Amino acid sequence: MKALTSLAIASYILLLTGCVPRIEVAAPKEPITINMNVKIEHEIHIQVDKDVEKLLKNNSSLF
Q1: CA–CA separation, 11 and 52 (whole Å)
Q2: Helices and strands, number each (H, E), in the chain
Q3: PROSITE patterns from the xrefs (predicted)?
Q4: CA 59 → CA 25, 49, 51, 56, distances in Å?
Q5: How far apart are CA 51 and CA 56, in angstroms?
Q6: Can you give the pTM of this predicted structure?
Q7: Quick one: CA torsion of 38, 35, 25, 12, rounded to 10 degrees?
Q8: What is the C-alpha to C-alpha distance for residues 58 and 21, in angstroms, rounded to an integer?
Q9: What whole-number distance in Å separates Cα of residue 35 and Cα of residue 37?
Q10: What is the pLDDT of residue 62?
Q11: 26 burial type by CB count under 10 A (0-12 exposed, 13-18 middle, 19+ buried)
Q12: pLDDT tens string 4-54
């Protein structure tokens, strides 16, 4: 009985090792191209106090 169990285990291990899939890793033949057409738009809104607005209008050389 022990010999039969050992034989069954050995044949099961042989079956499992024969079914292992083959995995290959290879670089692609063509280069990888990443197309990034990105359009970035932004708006800046500045709200100033009336006194500051008058100061900027009167002293345009500040900026």
Answers
A1: 90
A2: 2, 0
A3: PROKAR_LIPOPROTEIN (PS51257)
A4: 68, 15, 12, 5
A5: 9
A6: 0.27
A7: 60
A8: 80
A9: 6
A10: 66
A11: exposed
A12: 788 888 877 777 666 566 778 888 889 988 888 888 888 887 777 888 778
Return the residue matching tokens 């008058």.
54
Q: The tokens of 50 are what?
A: 């009336």
What contacts 63, CB < 8 A, 6 or more positions away? 56
Query: Is residue 45 classed exposed, middle or buried when 0-12, 13-18 and 19+ CB atoms within 10 A define those classes?
Result: exposed
Structure tokens at 26: 């290879």
Select the more confidently predicted residue: 53 or 63: 53
